[in-house]
Amino acid sequence: MKLSVLLAATAALALNAAMAQAENIKIGASLPITGGLAVSGEKHKRGYELCTKLINNAGGILGRQVDLVVSDNRSDPATAINQYERFINVDKVDAVYGTFSSRLTYPVASILSKYNMVHAVPSGGALRIYEQGYKNLFYFQVGAAEYTGKDVVNVIKDLIPAGQGPKSAAIVHADDFFANAIASGLLGEKVVDAATNKQIADLAPGYLKEAGIDVVMQEKWPDDGFNDWLNLANSIKRSGAELIVGLTASEEEAVQLTRALKTVGATPKFVYLSQGAQHEFIEGVGASAAEGVMVHANWHKDAPFESTLAGKPFSNADFVKAFNAAYGIDPDEDSAIPFAVCQGIEQAIAGAGSTDNAKMGEWLHERTKDNPVRTVLGRFSWDDRGLAKDKSYILTQWQGGQLKFVYPKDEFQGVSALSYPKAGF
What we know:
By secondary structure, the protein is of the alpha/beta class. It has 15 helices and 18 strands. The chain has helices spanning 2-22, 38-57, 77-89, 102-114, 127-130, 148-159, 177-187, 207-210, 229-239, 251-264, 279-285, 287-290, 316-327, 333-352, 357-365, and strands at 25-31, 66-72, 95-97, 119-121, 137-139, 168-174, 190-193, 198-202, 214-221, 243-247, 270-273, 293-297, 306-309, 312-315, 373-375, 378-380, 394-399, 402-407. The protein has a 7-stranded mixed beta sheet, sandwiched between helices. A hairpin with a 4-residue loop joins strand 7 and strand 8 (198-202). The longest helix has 21 residues, at 2-22. The radius of gyration is 23 Å and the shape is globular. The N and C termini lie far apart (89 Å).
């Protein structure tokens, strides 16, 4: 009797252990599915969902299937905070994916740090996020937004013949974390954490001044509810600026600004927008207005990035094919970036052999240029702040209704020549 009881108990323990091993890995993501950031939020959701589906189809992570839990934060920071608190304390998730936009990421970062969760950030580039001393931040884009202007100015220096580049600039932007950050770098402003009044960085003299470009107009519009696009466009036209820099909080704002510039007949030599790489932009403004507009990007469908998924090689072309099969359209970077975040978390769990976030963080911190996380955005390793090392933006330009990459000119095959100057709107 005692032997049979012992055998039964042993069998039960083995069964329980097997069941525990078979429990799904639960990952939470709070995204702006509705509200002002909804277009990008929905695309981020698709990126996370497709990656999860492909991982599960390949057998999961550590032999366990992945359950993705997505909540709509309605583009509201307080709601995003509450949802991540719920993921951790109520849903008992094993890991999280980051949200969209610096405006939401900044407050969420403190919550995830409090619970010692790995915070893989898809879209939150403001430098102040990464100067808080949080241990397990990992940004899956090129770098802090304040440094974006360096690559924009390098295009002018490297691709436009000396003496023919724009001499004057108009900078217009949303009163938004990300847009303000890019503007600070271009203008050479001091970066201050509004919560503590602590100076984070002094970006003087600014990328435009270094390039010999005079700022003849600067205007900021409110983050929510702005609709005076025609007056703004007329002011830009009257400034005579040869370079127009438009830094928007959403794809829709990029569309509205470009439409207004077309309506008033602005005639700049060069236009750079912080958003506009998505198909909604070209559909919203038309090929003629988009022609020659440059947009920085982390991803392009023709970039030959090689990565891994579920432990097997997975190319950028594989991602495009899978996305098209799932959704009937080609992806843009708003889906590629969260897909890369999912790849990073999958590799961290597999590399650590555990969903223990401390071990996952250690594994991610150990990545190097030669032993990186491999994603559809390319290779990633990070500095102590959580910013990517040794990466540059892909600078793209709308040409003939297609988004072509034009810079850096020596990194990929198939780089197109820069179209310059722009023949008006």
